[in-house]
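During the second year of the project, the team shifted from modelling isolated chains to modelling whole assemblies. The rationale, set out in the original proposal, was that interfaces cannot be judged from single-chain predictions alone. As a representative example for this report, we include one of the complexes processed in the last quarter. Its constituent sequences, exactly as entered into the pipeline, are reproduced here:
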Amino acid sequence: MRVAVMSTCIGDAMFPEAVKATVRLLRRLGVTVEVPQAQTCCGQPMVNTGYLDEAVPLVRTFVSAFEGFDHVVVPSGSCAGSVRHQHGLVAARSGDAALADAVRQTSPRVLELSEFLVDVLGVVDVGAWFPHRVTYHPTCHSLRMLRVGDRPTRLLSAVGGIDLVPLPRAEECCGFGGTFAVKNADTSVAMGADKAAHVRSTGAEVLVTSDSSCLMHVGGLLSRGHAGIRTMHLAEVLAHTPDEGADGLDAADGTTSVAR
Amino acid sequence: MPPFPTAARAALGDAQLRRNLAHATGTIRAKRAAVIDELEDWEGLRQRAARTKDETLAHLDEHLLTLEASLTARGATVHWARDAADACRVVADVARAHGIRDVVKVKSMATQEIQLNETLAEQGISAWETDLAELIVQLGDDLPSHILVPAIHRNRTEIRDIFRDRMGAVGRAAPDGLTDDPAVLAGAARLHLREKFLSTRMAVSGANFAVADTGTLVVVESEGNGRMCLTLPEVLVSVVGIEKVVPTWSDLESFLTLLPRSSTGERMNPYTSTWSGVAPGDGPQEVHVVLLDNGRTKALADDFARQALRCIRCSACLNVCPVYERVGGHTYGSVYPGPIGAILNPLLKGVGQDPATDALPYASTLCGACGDVCPVAIDIPGILVHLRGKVVDAHRGDGLPKAEAVAMKAAAWGLGSAARLGLGERLLGAAAGLWRGSRAGTTRPVITRLPWPGSHWTRARDLPVPPRESFRAWWRRTGRDGGAS
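Output from the structure prediction step:
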């Protein structure tokens, strides 16, 4: 089984700890991971803003970087959703039949991390240890584009020492929405502020999601509000084991906090 | 009307509006969810309805001709209206032919879309809304902000004030000592409206459905005011969008199951009125039906987005939309607000002409909640993205490209190859060093202030400082040989 990790452009540049954790976790579960160096971005920022022509070269780069793998694991519901649901449209628009064919071959093999763990590896307990009060925001694209269902919370529930508390109105969008966060900044912030208030109401120490973009948005609001709540990617929690320090928040380079 | 982001900014500052909207949409959302869970095969039902609509739209011309023939055979007069002006002219002509200065109205989205009340007023004809919420909006000299609940943005204290201050000027005044008790308010509206029903000789309605083979128009409503308007006056004019046609009577079954559950969270709507032309000695003795295009054939010409014409105006998408919940309906600048408005308005009007319409497809985070609840399975998020593409394409020939277009092209170029992305990340890491400074520690430093356009982000949100080493660089340094982190 040849498995590749898609680091995603935002994971690559802004949240490398989340991608490193994905690699660490998969290796611990016995998977030999490859990271094709030709990969860049799924093209979602362009597609969702209406620049479909501009996304064509990115789709081309994607398929050439990832073709031939049995599975491509993505620590992002949003990027996985973009590949599975938008690459076909972009390829069709380009009029390049060979590209459309390559997309048909590649995109169904692209899985969000929790889908790969539960459906392909067949594990729910990944042997993680994370003794903290945690709440989980289930990201819109994971929920409604990929239909990952309760896979992420099943994985989290099996983590040793964790105190997983439900998030009120969990299925409501955090308001990030890609360029929506800038084009409609006021509405985006209003939605995010309500999400942040729900997070605070749980008394959790850590907010976990499967998308770096939601983390960046809600984390940015929690940070500005001095909420004292960390944000972490699902992969970082699942990758954590007792021998990596009892606290789990020590290796905090990848988390957003209130220091300034 | 200012474009969405500007209008939203003003609406977000209205705390009372936010509370009213959150309460109302939350209540309807919960009711809807409960009655939908009762049905065994909701998904099958909505797919069946979607198929019916799609097949009808594919042969719309034939079904409309059948409808015209059936209605005419039953004594109705059918008019074809290319646009709003055509449709308004028909209504005004009918009123003038009978010397009528006042008409009562059944709540209708199509007549609001063509601004019938305003056009009639210019010609000295007064149109009186009889739906309770529409009455509140009309008396308050306001605009509707929700498809189903036009006065959703008002609370009952505001409604009491509107009734007390305005009713007397246009008919029977509100009783003295009016309170904000819902039953008292409804009583005042009932007395005010009854006077209108009994004294007005002409009514204007829309239709929820138009059955082609039987020539039957259908209106569903909750208050009984619609039934009064459809039976008491001598003359009835119904303005019907051409997408409202369904081929046969039995097609109504799935729609009359889907609509009330999706819109009001009821198993069945309280009043379903159907009428076919003229029945001698019973009800209106002159019936006109105006079949309205007003951009619908433009939408029909779009192979993918055509599915928006399946819409049965239930407003379920408004009630689940987190954007609508925070900014309200007026922000969309149209009688069709919320997610359906964000796609319907650009489809009916066309994109590339005015900034307010072009902003609508961007008034969504693409969270997908709207598409999930839609009873006729319209892929609203998909159409939003499709229309964004159309907006961008419409401006590709502009003399001076927008800053966004330049940024997107630059980003696409930078992300186009791994080498360019790697270089970009190294530059980002170096720049971030300026922010990072000497602050060391276990927590990640944040950026609190960026220049425009980054200021749109940092006005309310911190941004993590980009890390020293990207994942790509880390992998090259340690990862490929299987080393630990």
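Chain A touches chain B through 81 residues (CB under 8 Å). Strands of chain A lie at 3-5, 33-34, 71-74, 110-112, 133-136, 163-165, 206-209, 230-233.
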